[in-house]
Amino acid sequence: MSKKDKVVFVNHNIQVSELATLATLHVSKWEDASEAVKGDELLSMIVADEKAKEAALTTSINRTKSASNLSDLDAKRDEILTELFDVVSGLRHSRNAEKKEAASAVNAVLSKYRGIARLSIANESGQVKSLLEDLEAEKANIALLDDVADIVADLRAAESAVLAELNKIDSDKVAAGESASEIKKQLVAIMNDELVPYLNVAKILKSDVYGDFADNVAASITRANATVDVRLKVSKQA
Question: Within a 10 A sphere around the Cβ of 67, how many other Cβ atoms?
């Protein structure tokens, strides 16, 4: 078998998201393979292991994305809090006596919560919940203040989004296993130590049976490695 015909090894510098995609492609190609290929018990076990690790890796990747998303949601909530404080504070200087009095009343409530944006995300949620409850008692005053009711509604929605993401992260923690880097090592090992060597031998012995599947796997790895090579080259030039 020429070097060109061989199934190549996966570059260890592959990123976790790229590796997850690569594993998904392998499983998909195996599911579309001939019955003879799928009837190979050892190959089926290797692909099953690859599929299981891909699922674990995807879960780990999603946990990381959730943490990043939570940070973005918290930042949005902080922006709304700042807007609320600033708008109400400014309305205290209104020439309209009724608005000025209403703004002073609402500002008195807000003054108890200044600085909450500096708290941890979870602690801030507790304070925002309390703030929203206190503002319920100021509905009449808030109705007199331009834009404030809409800002409070935005804050309520932002808080709901933060709580939903916190609950998702808590659920993920319960099901959390190994880190993405640990799973990556195991998945690369399955590919390089089991799948690739097996397919290279199988292709030599029974090219008519394993050739198409082996070529599909080889093509997917070659494309993934090319992506890694380009990224490394750009990184060195930077």
Answer: 12
Q: Give the pLDDT of residue 174.
A: 46
Q: Are 159 and 116 in contact (CB under 8 A)?
A: no
Contact 155, 128 (CB under 8 A): yes
Q: Count how many residues are written for the chain.
A: 238
Pairwise CA distance, residues 149 & 172, whole Å? 35
**C-alpha to C-alpha distance for 76 and 85, rounded to whole angstroms:** 15
Amino acid identity, residue 21? Answer: T
Contact call for residues 29 and 220 (beta carbons, < 8 A) = yes
Q: Quickly count: other Cβ atoms within 10 Å of residue 46's Cβ.
A: 21
Q: Which amino acid is at 186?
A: Q
pTM over 0.70: no
Q: Measure the CA angle with vertex 22, ends 179 and 65; round to 5°.
A: 40
User: Residues 1-8: what's their mean pLDDT?
Assistant: 68
